[in-house]
Amino acid sequence: MSADKLKLWGGRFTGATDPLMELYNASLPYDKKMYKVDIEGTRAYTSALKKVGLLNDKELSEIHRGLDELLKEWDADKFVSVQGDEDIHTANERRLGEIIGREIAGKVHTGRSRNDQVATDMRLYVREQLQNIRAILVEFIKVMTTRAEQEIDVLMPGYTHLQRAQPIRWAHWLSSHATYLATDLERLDQVIERVNNCPLGAGALAGHPFGIDREYLADTLGFNGVIGNSLTAVADRDFIVEVLFWGSMILNHLSKMSEDMIIYSTAEFGFLKLADAYSTGSSLMPQKKNPDSLELLRGKSGRVFGQLAGFMMSLKATPSTYNKDLQEDKEPLFDCLVTVSHSISIATGVISTLEIVPEKMQGALTMDMLATDLADYLVRKGVPFRETHHISGEAVAMAEREDLSGIDKLSIEQYKQIDSRFEADVVKVFDFEASVERRTATGGTARSAVLKQLSNLKQAVSK
Ligand code: ARG
Q1: pTM (2 decimals)?
Q2: pLDDT of residue 15
Q3: Which CATH superfamily is domain 19-106 in?
Q4: How far apart are CA 36 and CA 92, in angstroms?
Q5: Which of 30, 118, 125, 240 to mutate to test the pocket of ligand 1 (most atoms within 8 A of CB)?
């Protein structure tokens, strides 16, 4: 028989496949990474076939023995693909036939289509990968919170518009980024919930003609339930879009955190030093130490979002049920999973090994950053904030006019001149620690408020 006749769908074809079409159509080079879940799916499916009397005990045990052997071949990297192995499903079925004989192997696909098969494989594969990613994300959040607890004493400037704004704790900055990540974790759990639904037993599109027990299939494969419409079951790739979105969002978060750290590690800021393990040098300038890890994190966020946008376009306006466009889900998805998982691990490495320079952070605090606190001082004496904002602005202006280094250098007489409600205790305002410690309300930068955030984060990851 010619290779074309041996194809699973070879029966109705007379002409040979164009060699480029063969390559263009083949997904085995990238979908072979699903070999294990494909075998797992077939194992469950054949058990279900036995339940409806389409296989007997002997046939089933022979099939399961063959699947075990097939799995061993893949695990040992001994699987040899042949021409015509279009994708992982055809490759596995072909090889199973060689191991146990075509007579029995030929019954495996009864009532099943590659359409419900691939949808099932993808969900099983994604579920496993997301659980791995979940574990490294939890680890990352723990590293962030532990570091924050250890360095809670360190103050630094907080910025808006990248201009010095108000003093904050370095731990508050860490906690802020960990807070985004905790939301990513929550969102991930919701995505896993929706991934974990079973399309198997939907057939090509119309449903199963032999009354297969889909609930049994779902249970056996550890799914939460079945997808309730066969047309949807074979076509639904929303879960892939969700994973690509999830990856885009977390990398977006990591890109922003990276950008801060790139800036903080410049000589101009000098707030932190990246470990050598996460930096590289220049081929020309011997003095350079570049934050490549952080730049890559920033750059890869663009790539993953591109995959989301690209796959959304592939999916858009596809007709009902299965169309080959859907095969385009794999490369972006696989790349996204690897990129996201590596990115979280790199970010964890960067955060756990960097060195902070507290003197530089604290040294960057300037008295003008307490102008709001000066306004608040008068608020505490009953003056409306709109008025105190103005008065504090006058103090900043006067200090500038008098060529003083900051608002703390104005004498009490000068303060009285600006507003008679200023008293000698105004000097208490000019203390960065005191400023930070006033922000005790939930979510603020006072020690107690930051510790509370950290304890909430720790609780969120312990679930
Ligand atoms: N390799 C295909 C995919 O990934 C499997 C499903 C093929 N189904 C079909 N009707 N041609 O989408």
Answers
A1: 0.94
A2: 82
A3: Fumarase/aspartase (N-terminal domain) (1.10.275.10)
A4: 10
A5: 118
CATH number of this structure's domain 366-430: 1.10.40.30
Q: Which fold has domain 114-363?
A: Fumarase C; Chain A, domain 2 (1.20.200)
Encode pLDDT of 176-196 as tens digits: 999 999 999 999 999 999 999
Tens-place pLDDT, residues 25-70: 999 999 999 999 999 999 999 999 999 999 999 999 999 999 999 9
Give pLDDT, residue 282. Answer: 77
Closest CA to 370 of 176, 171, 172, 158: 158
405 flagged as catalytic? no
Centre of ligand 1 from the C-alpha of residue 86, in Å: 9
Q: For residue 342, indicate whether it is catalytic.
A: no
Candidates 64, 109, 113, 161; catalytic one? 161
Confidence of residue 404 (pLDDT cuts 50, 70, 90): very high
The dihedrals phi and psi of 271, each to the nearest 5 degrees, come to -70, -35
Q: Is 26 in the pocket of ligand 1 (CB under 6 A)?
A: no
**Do the beta carbons of residue 396 and residue 371 sit within 8 Å?**
yes
